[in-house]
């Protein structure tokens, strides 16, 4: 099963899993992208609508659209935000005209695109010249505590398969500055990047664990694939690594954000392309 396919399951399970961080992360990404009232925005890979809802709050439903290839998630987003246009589409092929939006964002999506550079170019195509394309990805290899501790625990109980699925290893865009390189390769200019740190509260360990066995997201799919004995061992190892007891606790999560501008003309394109590609 590809990473993208793991988001065709339950929208509720997603919201109880990494979706918990979505609203805070959306606010941080909007702030980082310096989105002003009055602009028209598209949320690519909108999922159940965490970023879409935050955009609606600032810009109004008439100025926000969403797109996601998962029909289950699109349905959930439409239920949550009935006045918003939400279409079933991947980021690599968006059914919108050239320059239709002032800003196009994607939250935790680029790693799931089959063709990330093509996807970023497509996001830039539907953004007007001078508008912005922004995104963020989890710091899977470092400070995304929920997932980092999960994969470290998984490697204790099934080392080979866990190493082959560990998002800190298999996700192409998860180190500081990597997204900036991708943004420049996709033709964006004035690229800025930096960390976003958010947190989520849990009632207890069960509150955190319960979405994993549903199979949602790559971590959930791995958990679901284990036999009962190994799943129980994973649960114990994970809890030990997080060092949490039966009471409430909080976890922090770091993401890397990027924003770049769509070039205004072909001549600017040529001028900028000689600038180099260092993050
Ligand atoms: C981790 S979820 C993030 C959802 C939402 N943006 C959020 O912050 O809660 C990843 C999302 O990317 C979507 N996705 C997978 N492949 C995609 C693609 N090629 N283009 C756009 N979205 C994609 C999935 O369906 C899923 O909704």
Strand content: 15-25%
CATH class: Alpha Beta
Low-confidence stretches: 273-279
Count of separate DSSP helical elements:
13
Oligomer: single chain
Which structural class fits the helix and strand makeup?
A: alpha/beta
Mean pLDDT equals: 92
What are the secondary-structure elements, in order, as H or E?
HHEHEHEEHEHHHHEHHHEH
Describe the largest sheet. 7 strands, mixed
Number of strands: 7
Would you tell me which CATH topology applies?
Rossmann fold
Short synopsis of the structure:
The chain is α/β, with parallel strands linked by helices and 279 residues long. The protein is 42% helix and 21% strand. The C terminus is likely disordered.
Any overview of this molecule?
Helices cover 42% and strands 21% of the residues. With 279 residues, it is an alpha/beta fold. It has one domain: 3-Layer(aba) Sandwich (Rossmann fold). Helix 4 links the parallel strand 2 and strand 3. Helix 2 crosses helix 3 and helix 6 runs antiparallel to helix 7. The chain is globular. It binds S-adenosylmethionine (SAM).
Essential attributes:
single chain, alpha/beta, globular, 42% helix, disordered C terminus, seven-stranded mixed β-sheet, 279 residues, binds S-adenosylmethionine, Rossmann fold
Please give the structural blueprint:
Elements: H1 11-16, H2 22-33, E1 41-44, H3 50-59, E2 64-68, H4 71-80, E3 85-88, E4 101-107, H5 116-125, E5 127-138, H6 145-157, H7 159-165, H8 167-170, H9 178-185, E6 189-202, H10 205-209, H11 217-225, H12 228-242, E7 249-261, H13 266-273
Parallel strand pairs: 1-2, 1-4, 2-3, 4-5
Antiparallel strand pairs: 5-7, 6-7
Helix pairs in contact: 2-3, 6-7, 6-12
The structure holds S-adenosylmethionine.
